[in-house]
Specification:
Number of helices: 2
Structural class: mainly alpha
Order of helices and strands: HH
Protein name: DUF2164 domain-containing protein
Strand content: under 5%
Largest sheet: none
Number of strands: 0
Organism: Lysinibacillus zambalensis
Pfam family, one: DUF2164
Length: 82
């Protein structure tokens, strides 16, 4: 999966992974090892999260569209036939 992150974002994520391993597993992992964990997450976990976010977004947009349709319908004026 292609994820666009800035260099700073990637560095922050790598540091977060290292911190997680240190705080939760008492393991000091190298930057290289943290990058491998990050690669695994990007390839195997991120697509599920991304798809869930897309599904949530689709739901919100559909609800907003339905609301707009209702508002537009309320603006319509009846046509009197003669």
């Amino acid at each position: 999966m292609f994820i666009r992150l800035t260099k700073e974002q990637q560095e922050t994520i790598i540091a977060d992974i290292q911190r997680f391993f240190y705080n939760n597993r008492d393991e000091d992992i190298s930057e290289f090892e943290a990058e491998r964990v990050f690669d695994f997450i990007k390839e195997n976990i991120a697509p599920h999260i991304y798809n869930a976010a897309i599904s949530d977004t689709k739901y919100v947009v559909e609800r907003q569209y339905a609301s707009i349709e209702d508002e537009l319908a309320a603006l319509e004026r009846p046509i009197k036939l003669k």
